[in-house]
């Protein structure tokens, strides 16, 4: 009889404990999700904070602890299990600022000027024509009629006599020592950009010279030529303007190309030429 009573009490306790556990689980509020989620702006996956470990009751757990205390001995074990990873709202990563490319080195290139021999180019341009040898109008009181050419060899001037006691004066280059001459000639022919054929006497002295050179800027006769009678002498231009005022020719009267063009346009064939 006492055994049956004991069994009934045990079954009644089990039923009461079950009802109490069910009631406790029903009344327990769910954990708010905010505790598991971090702010969405982090863009990372985080675990919820672990629940504190339950204090041991010293009853060994299991079914006996459930009967005597009404607490579920497996709650602590469930709390220790890793919770699933809860993804938070992902924010696209901020784009990395583009690094400014270093400024390109700007190479400034200075134009190069070719080397010029000492007796050419710039050096010659500096001493091209002395001011006193530039073309100008001067007074003239000589005996020659207008239109006459007078060559003053010692002073390196050529005069074109004008009316009213005036004359155009040009600077000239003359024959070097041993090649100068004096006399009366007339203009027998006029040529623009004349060809050049060195005379035999010149070729004997200078066998390196060409036998013929077409007219042009490199031609030593320059832009114009006035032929003097049947002689080999000419009044002509030059591609060496620095030689004006010098005694360097083989007997011809040389002028700058600008001056010989000016004289060429003013002088007629047959004009008289006095060389003194």
Task: Write up this protein.
- The chain is elongated and about 160 Å long.
- 22% of the residues lie in helices and 19% in strands.
- The strands form 3 sheets. A 9-stranded mixed beta sheet has the order 3-6-5-4-13-8-9-10-12, with helices on one face.
- By secondary structure, the chain is of the alpha+beta class.
- The protein has 2 domains: 2-87, no CATH class; 122-275, L,D-transpeptidase catalytic domain-like (Beta Barrel).
Strand fraction band?
A: 15-25%
Helix content: 10-25%
Spatial gap, N to C terminus: 178 Å
Looking at this structure, what is the CATH superfamily of the largest domain? L,D-transpeptidase catalytic domain-like
Strand order of the largest sheet: 3-6-5-4-13-8-9-10-12
Overall pLDDT level:
73
CATH uppermost class of the largest domain: Mainly Beta
CATH fold node name of the largest domain: L,D-transpeptidase catalytic domain-like
Number of E-state strands: 13
Query: What are the secondary-structure elements, in order, as H or E?
Result: HEHHEHEEEEEEHEEEEHE
Gross CATH architecture of the largest domain:
Beta Barrel
Spatial extent as radius of gyration: 61 Å
Our count of helices gives 6
What's the main sheet like? 9 strands, mixed
Number of domains: 2
* Class based on secondary structure composition and strand pairing: alpha+beta
What are the segments in which pLDDT stays under 50 over at least 5 consecutive residues? 32-45, 98-126
Shape: elongated
Organism: Salinarimonas soli
Pathway: Cell wall biogenesis; peptidoglycan biosynthesis
Active site: 236 (proton donor/acceptor), 252 (nucleophile)
GO molecular function: glycosyltransferase activity; peptidoglycan L,D-transpeptidase activity
